[in-house]
Amino acid sequence: MSKIIYTKTDEAPVLATRSFLPIVKAFVKSSGIQIETKDISLAARILAVFPDFLNEDQRVSDDLAILGELAKSPVANIIKLPNISASIPQLKAAIKELQSQGFAIPNYPDEASNDADKDIKSRYDKIKGSAVNPVLREGNSDRRAPKAVKNYAKKNPHSMGAWSSDSKTHVATMESGDFFHNEKSLTLPEATSIKIVHTDSNGTDTVLKDSFKLLKGEIIDATLLSKSALVSFLETQIADAKASGVLFSLHMKATMMKVSDPIIFGYAVKIFFKNVFEKHGETLEKIGVDVNNGFGNLLEKLPSLPEAKRNEIQADIDAAFKNGPAVAMVNSDKGITNLHVPSDVIIDASMPAMIRTSGQMYNAAGKLQDTKAVIPDSSYAGIYSATIDFCKKHGAFDPTSMGTVPNVGLMAQKAEEYGSHDKTFEIASNGTVTVIDASGYTLLTHKVEAGDIWRMCQTKDAPIQDWVKLAVTRAKASETPAVFWLDENRAHDAELIKKVKTYLKDYDTTGLDLRILSPIDATLFTCERLKDGKDTISVSGNVLRDYLTDLFPILEVGTSAKMLSIVPLMNGGGLFETGAGGSAPKHVEQFLSENHLRWDSLGEFLALAVSLEHLASANNNPKSQILADTLDDATGKLLDTGKTPSRLVGELDNRGSHFYLALYWAQALAYQTKDADLKAEFEPIAKQLSDNEATIVSELNQIQGKPVTIDGYYKPNETLVNNAMRPSKTLNSILN
Length: 736
Ligand SMILES: NC(=O)C1=CN([C@@H]2O[C@H](COP(=O)(O)OP(=O)(O)OC[C@H]3O[C@@H](n4cnc5c(N)ncnc54)[C@H](OP(=O)(O)O)[C@@H]3O)[C@@H](O)[C@H]2O)C=CC1
Ligand SMILES: O=C(O)CCC(=O)C(=O)O
Ligand SMILES: [Mg+2]
Known about the structure:
Blueprint: E1 2-8, H1 11-28, E2 33-39, H2 42-49, H3 63-70, E3 77-80, H4 88-100, H5 115-127, H6 133-136, E4 141-144, H7 147-155, E5 170-172, H8 179-182, E6 184-187, E7 192-200, E8 205-214, E9 219-225, H9 227-244, E10 247-250, H10 260-272, H11 274-286, H12 295-301, H13 307-323, E11 329-331, E12 336-337, H14 347-356, E13 360-362, E14 368-374, H15 378-394, E15 407-409, E16 424-426, E17 431-437, E18 442-448, E19 453-459, H16 461-478, E20 482-485, H17 491-504, E21 514-517, H18 519-531, E22 537-540, H19 542-557, E23 564-568, E24 574-578, H20 585-594, H21 602-618, H22 622-640, H23 654-671, H24 676-691, H25 693-702, H26 718-725, H27 729-735
Parallel strand pairs: 1-2, 1-3, 3-24, 5-14, 10-14, 15-22, 20-21, 20-22
Antiparallel strand pairs: 4-15, 4-23, 6-9, 7-8, 7-17, 9-19, 11-12, 13-14, 16-19, 17-18, 23-24
Bound molecules: NADPH dihydro-nicotinamide-adenine-dinucleotide phosphate, 2-oxoglutaric acid and magnesium ion.
GO molecular function, one term: isocitrate dehydrogenase (NADP+) activity
Binding site for D-threo-isocitrate: 143, 545
Binding site for substrate: 130-137
């Protein structure tokens, strides 16, 4: 029996799963393919780590841990949908919901003073932020837009806001004192173990992280972001946004960089509301305000104060808004600003969305306005300023004629910043932080001040070798120039460049156009070609992988949901991610109020096809190859016939789109002649689906327009949500 693991995640993707999975199971069953689900939703991940707080019948297995192990085995064939990388506000909301459903899990302790609380907090902190992807990604990343998707976008271009050369939009980033400028890096000549030690100005040592092992050939780097430099940078930028009449916006990745970025986010809030914190800092501290969780955290805590005090603070908040620059809004109608919740504005999606919208974001009046995009660390900010400058000079990109930028990304085994959470620290006092090896030798050292954010990253050698190989393979297979986005002036990149040059010698690269360019030069080179309709592979480290696989897809095809996203696992298995974007909380909101789900499952269709293809060769299952080929045909037809979900209630949504996929897939299986059994099986199914098209579509569209109740956001009621996602009796009975 061949097996595909399909992950059950959160929000819009898991709603879609409830409609799509029954179709998949019905179609692959006769080919000896078993589909097993593993629940890695935020709710399931919480329940999995607190068995001691739950009744026997409430306990769940730790599916993420199981999949993490599976990802290291050659038999892995996993389809991974986007999941919530929870910020603290999301984590707390999920805990509250589970408690209300009778799961006696503990609250999240903001301050853990005793051992019991420390244990609880450490269990929750492992669930927090980007906690799923790094566990499963035992391979590097290969993301691209399939030809059918590009052709569809060329024929049906999405809207693209025009760019004018006098746009005041720009990126603001630090010129010193940030992670980029303080970075030191080296490659380990031998395996060793290291510890990280802080020494204060009196010479007292504190071990920040005790001895852990490193492999031979690993690149390590250490750096810090200076608190004082950050504060003065933010002060300058807030004043400048006010003076230039542009929106102030902050773009971070607080979910993935779950230790450093919430702290930076907190400073932005504290400085924007400087008057409030100077005057009421003590009071706010007393009521437990922690703006690392956003300005929204302050607002939530205010009601616990006596009315007079509350009004006084509110007046100072109003004054800060009045005297400060206008702030970019997440939701103008509800008054939610860019500073409210750290997980509302996530840089990989937020910057491209802004660039697609003429470089503008929404102001408090719900109107678009030029914007100052503040990205404190300058390591990668330059790619956005270069893109913005390019658009100012050449106008917006044209989806009908632009090329494409596939990405080969280094991410295996928690490469680079991805694995830095357990090695990132907010520094308690002035002194030094040192990385010391087993023999007591100092590998890296930095002078630090209280409040600085210090971090160490590591990148193993085997993933780098695999990444170079993948880059060469993709460049050959697609006959496309490939650019390594590496900056010789950055310490970590300089180490990486040495390895790239060495490992490229292992391959015959004659005829290939392979280059190494700094991220800014790579952006310019790529954008020039992109505008002229030419393709360029970006070969990047982990953070740029994340940024570029939203930036270019959003400009090229309107959303990263339409990307083919493959992770060839280093031990031979396959991880097939669906799309490259997130879990679209806005889509759930619309679904709950209008019973219309605009989530596009194209990423799922593409992932399933490559998963079936992988299974065909790994398990020598020719039927699986036929299923894969016919699914691709069906996906192509779905695009050609425009049966992707509409944004508007009453029109075809995610469920209707799934019906059409089933119809076209059945037709393709009935039409093919390679496998007589599949042909015979699907001929009548294709006929039934086709004969009932009008009935099914009307059953799916008629139920829209009213709110739906599913009794839960993070853990909805299974029966209610399954019924909601499978409302067509006719379709259900054909599938059964
Ligand atoms: N791989 C993973 O597991 C990832 C998870 N995340 C998580 O997802 C959440 C939301 O992140 P965010 O950055 O807002 O990203 P989202 O992709 O959820 O949101 C950006 C916007 O992209 C559009 N979009 C994304 N996917 C689809 C789709 N399949 N069909 C149609 N439109 C789509 C939607 O635009 P519109 O409103 O125009 O419809 C959506 O509002 C966070 O919890 C984040 O941590 C984020 C990235 C990757
Ligand atoms: O893991 C996450 O939080 C997000 C990952 C992501 O955005 C990506 O891989 O593109
Ligand atoms: Mg991303």
